Amino acid sequence: MHKTRLQILICGGTGCISSGCLEVEDALVAALEKHGIRDEATILKVGCFGFCEQGPIVKIYPDNTFYVRVEAKDCEELVAEHLMKGKHVDRLLFKSPITGESCHHHMDMAFYKTQLRIALMHCGMVDPENIEDYIGVGGYEALAMALNDLSQQEIIDIVKASGLRGRGGAGFPTGNKWQFGLDNKSDKKYIICNADEGDPGAFMDRSIMEGDPHAVLEAMAIAGKAIGADEGVVYIRAEYPLAVNRLRVAIAQAEKYGLLGDNIMGSGFNFHVRVNLGAGAFVCGEETALINSLEGQRGEPRLRPPFPAQKGFWGQPTVNCNVETYACIPLIITRGADWFKSFGTEKSPGTKVFALAGKINNVGLIEVPMGTTLREVIYEIGGGIPKGKKFKAVQTGGPSGGCISEKNLDVGVDFDTLTAIGSMMGSGGMIVMDEDDCMVNIAKFYLEFTVEESCGKCTPCRVGNTRMYEILERITQGKGKPEDLVELRELGQTIKDASLCGLGNTAPNPVLSTLNHFMDEYEAHVLHGKCPAGACKDLVNYVITEKCIACSLCAKACPVNCIHPTGSETPNGKKKYVIDQEACIKCGACIPKCPPKIGAIVRE
Amino acid sequence: MSDVFISKEGVSFMEKNEKALYAELDAYIGSLPTKQGALISVLHKAQDIFGFLPKEVQEYVAEKLDIPTSKVYGVLTFYSFFTMTQKGKHRVNVCMGTACFVRGADKVLEKFERDLGMKANTTREDGLWSLDALRCIGACGLAPIITVDGKSYGRLTEDDVTGIIETTLAKEEAK
Questions:
Q1: What domain count does chain A have?
Q2: Average pLDDT over residues A252-256
Q3: Percent of chain A residues past pLDDT 70, beyond the cut
Q4: Which residue in the set A14, A364, A560 is minimally distant from B138, CB to CB?
């Protein structure tokens, strides 16, 4: 396919596009032309390499060198030195934060060493806009097996035996779901792919669709064969234009190659896939709400049962799985259930993709075997907390999950262990927080999200969460009362028990888990009127101490001009500066302006 | 219909015939295999064409799809992607996803509010700026990140805000 001597892979994920990979591509083309070797190199824009913190990433084959934070101005040197002379451009190699040594290959980096890629296997390897690349790495072989060699029940038995559980959050066994889809008889059935990744701080599914869209389409067709459906719909967020576009390109190519559409591979099996845009409603990640939205309605959940596998889209049996779940299917079919089960834990086989972000050195997309400990993820792959700050908590599962404290860092991550410590797997967002984050404020942040996203259909969620939010707001303003903490717990438990759908059932988790693990912070707010992390503005004052040398730097930085020379005199007769507490907006802009050796401004 | 249309690209539609815009929407609705369940797709298209969904457009969609206007209104207000108000000439979107939030996106947003003299999730009276807090654009490696007229600026601090506003305005003058 790519018969040139050199191959240059550029990460074309959303993260790297934001950090300028398109300019890098243009500059590389220009440099190759200038040196007269444009014909000798193929430039491929591939899916996410995962190491978003270091983007844009450029990988050069055949010697497999991994360059980080490449800018357009670096491309001339990259071509002149690496491609023309065979010398590494050392300044663009990743430097180990521990030893300071340059890493040529990605497998030398701690970030990649402990990772294992199954769902992301082809991300960063194939050109997502070229179906031949995917076929070249064994793509659509699983579909060929499913159509020619396996019966419907045999396909489902393989998926069941693999122990694959839904990667969208709840972890329901995928094989069982397919079995229900097969057992419910109807002339018309549907396959849905849930790509409505609404968790803030999560970008796993987006990266898979951007980097390896054919794996998802292939798996949907396999599911179609397994349950007897001839139509598939991908319900995807409208906020993901790149993923939408790549899926559409992939569908058109697969149809052209006879791998989707009518009479696939001459087997007589028909399967058509279309893309349906969501419109920005978190609750549509819930499968019955998603189905309502697909039907052009408000995305409010339906009462279950009947489950979608019985009566789903347009009242027909419907199987709905998440993007990452589908991405595992082709490899499970070709390599077998035992292969998949050899990774991960007994009850949660395989791997899980996480979007690692927040206060962590190596932000990125990672995939690890189930059972990997949070400590390994945060300190080995993630490279620890920036600026030498202290770890405080890691939040998993987005607005439905909880905060996990230091004492649980050695827990191996799988569906059941996370639930046991008051959080949940969710779709795989993992946000790390340090000593500067106030856990009460974080709980409020998540609850504000759920309050806005609650569809309003059932009272516990609509009213209960609003009341909880009001209590948290009082607490962060220093107006909390001790009985508020009891009230929060009771309300939270009621909302969990009485809500109709998954959104309401899990909405109180961020509050309940922080109450369990960070009670001391709640007490500091309520009993002592203090925010230990200094994040809650109403509980913080900025004060200039006697150390002030009247240099006026802070006053110049103040956006609201509330710092004036009205204090006592310095030894050389100038007036010291004072912050007008009434006018101060507590933005903290003055602190970094005060010369470090003086350090006159304090937050109290 | 309000008198000035401003598209996402900041091009005035004053000159363009309103009828042509409705005709484009008609053509799209006509191309659908079925009207059943098509409301959300039609609203996407209408917002693409008009930039926002005022009452007149809602009524038009309702008539074409043969459903009550109340249903159109009910659906569009359910989804945050749809807007009934016109956006400004320059659109600032500040990502307020969790990763950006813990890295100080709230401070960046506040700085924009102060510098532009407006509140988040509104359009300024003169129609020059819209400032919105977004859920998550999924570029957490660059947190905190914003987009201005489609261009992203990552790893921001509040000190960068004034410069970004000046650059945006300078680009306009250069045109």
A1: 5
A2: 98
A3: 100
A4: A14
Q: What is the DSSP letter of B2?
A: -
pLDDT of res. B16: 58
B31 contacts: CB under 8 Å, gap ≥ 6: none
**Alpha carbon of A366: minimum distance to chain B alpha carbons (Å):** 12
For residue B81, give the nearest of A53, A279, A298 by CB distance. A279
| Contact assignment for B41 to A206 by CB distance below 8 Å | no
CATH of the domain at A228: 3.40.50.11540
* Whether residue A413 is found in the same domain as residue A510: no
Contact status, residue B111 vs residue B158, Cβ threshold 8 Å: yes
Lowest-confidence segment of A200-204, A358-362, A487-491, B44-48 by average pLDDT: A200-204
User: In sequence order, what DSSP letters do the residues of A492-523 get, joined into one string?
Assistant: HHHHHHH-SSHHHHHTTHHHHHHHHH-HHHHH
Assess contact for A193 and A326: CB atoms under 8 A.
yes
| A277 strand-pairing partners | A236
Q: How far apart are alpha carbons A162 and A291 in whole angstroms?
A: 28
Whether A111 maps to a domain, the answer reads no
Question: Is B141 in Cβ contact with A357 (below 8 Å)?
Answer: yes
Residues 6+ away with beta carbon under 8 Å from B98: A200, A201, A357, A358, A395, A398, A429, A431, A445, A446, B136
Give the three-state DSSP class for A537. Answer: helix
A280:B80 CB<8 A? yes
Q: Nearest Cα to A281, choosing from B98, B135, B92?
A: B135
CATH code for the domain of A555: 3.30.70.20
Q: Which domain holds residue A100?
A: 6-106
Average confidence (pLDDT) per 10 residues, chain B, 175 residues: 42 62 95 93 95 94 96 95 92 93 92 95 94 86 90 90 94 78
CB A551 within 8 A of CB B120: no
Mark which residues 137-166 of B lie under 8 Å from A by CB: 137-143, 145, 152, 154, 158
User: With an 8 Å Cβ cutoff, is B64 touching chain A?
Assistant: no
| CB of A583 less than 8 A from some CB of B | no
On whether both A335 and A310 belong to a single domain, the answer is yes
Domain match, A445 and A423 both: no
Last residue of a domain, one of A528, A549, A576: A528
Residue A113 lies in a domain: no
pLDDT band for A164, please (50, 70, 90 cuts).
very high
Residue of chain B with shortest Cα separation from A454? B78
- pLDDT at residue A4 above 90? no
Of A18, A276, A587, which has the smallest distance from its Cβ to B139's Cβ? Answer: A18
Is residue A120 in some structural domain? no
Q: Give the pLDDT of residue A362.
A: 92
Do A257 and A223 share a domain, yes or no? yes
Residue of A nearest to B139 (CA): A15
Q: Which of A27-36, A173-182, A404-413, B4-13 has the lowest mean pLDDT?
A: B4-13
Determine which of B81, B82, B140, B162 to mutate to test the interface with A (most A C-beta atoms within 10 Å): B140
Domain endpoint, select from A371, A402, A434: A434
Looking at the structure, tell me whether residues A93 and A153 fall in a common domain.
Answer: no
Nearest CA in chain B to A241: B137
Q: Minimal Cα–Cα distance from A447 to chain B, Å?
A: 12
More confident residue, A5 or A272: A272
We report the CATH number of the domain holding residue A85 as 3.40.30.10
Q: Minimal Cα–Cα distance from B56 to chain A, Å?
A: 20
Which chain B residue has the Cα nearest residue A456? B78
My answer on whether A272 and A170 are in the same domain is yes
The verdict on B136 touching A (C-beta cutoff 8 Å) is: yes
- The one-letter amino acid code at A571 reads P
Closest CA to A412 of A458, A469, A372, A453: A372
pLDDT surpasses 80 at A422: yes
Count of pairs with CB atoms under 8 A, one residue in A, one in B: 139
Whole-model pTM: value is: 0.91
Which of A281, A298, A429 is facing B80, going by the closest CB pair?
Answer: A281
Task: Please answer yes or no on whether B96 and A200 come within 8 Å at the CB atom.
Answer: yes
Same structural domain for residues A333 and A429? no
State the CATH number of the domain containing residue A497: 1.20.1440.230
Q: Are residues A292 and A187 in the same domain?
A: yes
- Is residue A533 a part of any domain in this protein? no
